[in-house]
Amino acid sequence: MSASERFFCADAARIRGDSIMGTAPHGSVWILIEYRGGWPANGFDGLDLEPDTKALVYSAAQAVRARVLLVRRHGRLRSEEPPNWAVLHFEGLGAYRQQWGRWSRDEDLAQIASALDAPGRLGCPPVVLVCTHGRHDTCCAVRGRPVSRALSEHWPDLVWECTHVGGDRFAANVVIAPDGVYYGDLDALSAVTAVREHLAGLIHAEHLRGYTNLFPPQQAAVTAVLERFGPAGRHDYTVAATSRVADDRWQIHVDGSLPHPAGLQVEVHAHRTPPRRLTCHGPSTGRAVAYEVTSIRAR
Questions:
Q1: Is the pLDDT of residue 78 over 80?
Q2: Which tens digit of pLDDT belongs to each residue from 35-74?
Q3: Measured between alpha carbons, how far apart are the two ends of the chain, in Å?
Q4: Closest CA to 129 of 85, 168, 72
Q5: How would you classify the pairing of strands 84-89 and 29-34?
Q6: DSSP code string of 223-281
Q7: How many CB atoms lie within 10 A of CB 94?
Q8: Is 173 helix (H, G, I), strand (E, B) or coil?
Q9: CA separation for the pair 191, 199 (Å, rounded)
Q10: H-state helical runs in the chain
Q11: Can you say whether the dihedral through the CA atoms of 192, 98, 83, 62 is positive or negative?
């Protein structure tokens, strides 16, 4: 296949107009392992680590449904310091906790299991993760690396490249953790704008895939509210109640803190898309779930 005939899932998704709303994976704990060598296609699972240590980290992560990501600085900068590991916790209302350490031997990564049960530190700056996992999906590298470069120029201490975060067709993807905010369909310029606004306490609906502490219909509801009433802080809107009124329909009650509107009822409709190729490396087709907000009104 020639270069002009190659399939790029992110290009196809933009041509189709795939909605990114409500597509953030659910979760509230992240494990980061700095790995400066080449990343296997399946990330942490593919690393050749000491078996007992790897099994311990894997089982500890599974127990709390943590996402394990390999990370590195843009440009694979050389460092004399041992690589880092980190455990990031989202605990709601801004009580984000982090614990960081270093590892020289595989066995040092056993500290991660203990860190998952430790309280962690408050007040750490957020971590900006850019998926550049080319062995997993070509678009993640092609679109992610320019975004990583641009963000690293502005916030070199906050930004890490990372392995697969989900939603290859929405590359470039940026995750801010442990805030638990997914952004997608980014380029270098829009990524800098989105992250700058995020760090200033404003989240815009544009490029927002969702909040990871919410389930997809709830994510869609909050995104629609931000789109209707303008940007807001991470915790300015809360989901007060969720009712499933049909197999494919929900009523989501969203409350905003002043000066944002409170007592909103958002109706969300889900539907399955036609079969499509959803990744660069997967030749088979799949049907994704897309969310549409059909109304927003005061309760």
A1: no
A2: 999 999 999 999 999 999 999 999 999 999 999 999 999 9
A3: 55
A4: 72
A5: antiparallel
A6: HHHHHHH--B-TTSEEEEEEEEEETTEEEEEEEE-TTS--SEEEEEEEEEPPPB--SSS
A7: 11
A8: coil
A9: 12
A10: 9-16, 51-63, 111-117, 138-154, 188-199, 216-229
A11: negative
pLDDT over threshold 80, residue 282: no
Q: Scan for tokens 């709830």, then name that residue.
A: 218
Each domain of the chain, given as residue ranges in start order, spans 29-183
User: Coil, strand, or helix at residue 161?
Assistant: strand
Residue where the block lists tokens 């660069």: 280
Order of strands, edge to edge, in the sheet holding 208-211? 97-102, 84-89, 29-34, 67-72, 159-162, 127-131, 174-177, 181-183, 208-211
Whole-angstrom Cα distance, residue 96 to residue 106? 27
Q: What distance in Å separates the CA atoms of residue 162 and residue 159, rounded to the nearest whole number?
A: 10
